[in-house]
Amino acid sequence: MKKTPTGTAVGVDDPYAHAGVCDHVTGDGECRYAFEHPEHDRDFAAERASADYRCPAAAGDCEWCDCPHYRSTSDERECARCGLEARRDAHGDGRPLLEEHHLSYADEEREAADRANGDRAGRGADSSAAHEITVVLCRWCHAAVHDAWARIDDDASPSAEALAAAEGRRSDELAELGFETAAERRGDE
Question: What's the 3-state SS for the chain?
Fold first, then answer.
């Protein structure tokens, strides 16, 4: 199983198996990264510009992992492991039920490889691509995955504690929907 730079498990063997479409791809299959940030990688931007900014991975000409600027971050509203749905806590300072979980820490891996090759700038010609891949997990599944006893693709149900927290948030939402006159709030009759 893949590990974080600090050695805890990320819950998958292959992050790309859980990754989606690149965050930089437009609905038309064009690379927004090359268009909006050409100064970050001039060679990449020039190559994409010569192909009318067409994304080769979106077109099926290569795999997502072949692109040096691939990024797939999830904005789902439910846990990828147990299916617990998000519940807002708009007026409280409670911890969110769902958290972003990184499956890939390629930036650190690339920097370590570059340092090992003597490239202090972190931009060696042989450096691997820096890919950020995330999924959304409830905080209980997130802890279980990092404790190395759970995997992202387990057939799991929300824990009793997670369900209780979600139901508490639901009750708070319903209470906010109730109407109370100012006189009732002040205690006037």
Answer: CCECCCCCECCCCCHHHHCCCCCCECCCCEEHHHHHCCCCCHHHHHHHHHCCCECCCCCCCCCHHHCCCCEECCCCCECCCCCCECCCCCCCCCCCCEEEEEEEEHHHHHHHHHHHCCCCCCCCCCCCCCCEEEEEEEHHHHHHHHCCCCCCCCCCCCCHHHHHHHHHHHHHHHHHHCCCCHHHHHCCC
The dihedral formed by the CA atoms of 82, 88, 94 and 99, expressed in degrees to the nearest 10:
40
Look up residue 170 and give its two tokens: 């639901």
pLDDT of residue 106: 56
Phi, psi of 100 (to 5 degrees): -80, 135
Handedness of CA 148, 149, 150, 154 (dihedral sign): positive
Q: What is the pTM of this model?
A: 0.76
| Integer CA distances (angstroms), 86 to 62, 148, 150, in order | 35, 24, 21
Paired tokens of 187 = 């205690």
**Can you say whether the dihedral through the CA atoms of 12, 16, 19, 23 is positive or negative?**
positive
Q: How far apart (Å, rounded) are the C-alpha atoms in residues 34 and 54?
A: 10
**What integer pLDDT is reported at residue 124 of this predicted model?**
35
